[in-house]
Give the backbone structure.
Amino acid sequence: MTNATPPKAILFDLDDTLWPIAPVIVQAEIALHAWLALHAPKVAQQFDIVDLRAQRMALLALQPALKIDLGQLRRIGLHSAFEQAGEDSVHVEGAMRHFFAARNAVTLYDDVLPGLQRLKGRMLVGSISNGNADLAAIGLDGHFSVSLAAAQFGSAKPDPAIFHAACEMLGVAPHEAVYVGDDLHYDVRGAQNAGLRAVWLKRADTHVQQQQAIVPDAICANFDELLAWLASVQRE
């Protein structure tokens, strides 16, 4: 994919692009279950972490639209578990607050904060995520002019509409923006289909093979490589 226009904006995926998410979710679910044991013991006794996850997956199969709001999926799943266990659902929101606090206790990849600081004042910076990370809770909101989540917008990547909406919020045309993410389908193909350039951030700890049908505008292993690529396209 070629584009001669120097990019004015850069948009990032969040989970597994700026931080690894799998260990965070594992710890958040452990923290949630410990909270349930104290505040909703009948739920904790009847449902372990695996049971609660299976219940959410069953619910998602019945209501696939919930895929764009994973927080709501978890909330509905907890309401169901509370009802089945005969527990007072008044505690569901407390459980969700506890989960989200743990879910946002992320550990950034080492290159992320220095990279974002180097981008400051150089380009418009935003994010688009299908997840429910809270950049304010994480302490990164000051680095982003725009943060758009699927649950907030009403559709998810790879829908071109969410990419177009973020570009409009930044005041740039799609061809003036670059999207950076770890997923070839949702991030790279989704962004390119929306008219953006797309960088596959393929970190050393990922083992996803490139699909021949998807050709990123660049493949970078870290922010240093990303910034070097940006410099090269801005000189073109």
